[in-house]
Specification:
Elements: H1 12-21, H2 32-36, H3 45-73
């Protein structure tokens, strides 16, 4: 909410985003993806979303490599590949 104390520091859109992010109940709080679509961050969301997607791909790749390495080290038959 905009008050006399904060009006010179933040726009209405910035305060709206903060109000939606600073919600105690996670069921009602914005997710990171939703926050990136907020009008205040509209110019940055494409760049941020591509960074998030690249990060997720990297994590999945690391998990796959770690699983393959574990299977190989322990002579475990990998059920997902049949080998």
């Amino acid at each position: 909410m905009r008050t006399m104390d904060n009006e010179e520091y933040a726009t209405d859109m910035a305060l709206d985003l903060l109000d939606r992010l600073l919600v105690y109940d996670h069921e009602h709080r914005l997710t990171a993806r939703q926050a990136l679509h907020h009008p205040y961050l509209r110019g940055y969301s494409r760049l941020a979303m591509s960074s998030i997607d690249a990060f997720n791909e990297k994590v999945h790749s690391m998990k796959d490599r770690g699983r393959a390495s574990y299977v190989s080290r322990n002579n475990i038959k990998d059920k997902s590949t049949g080998s």
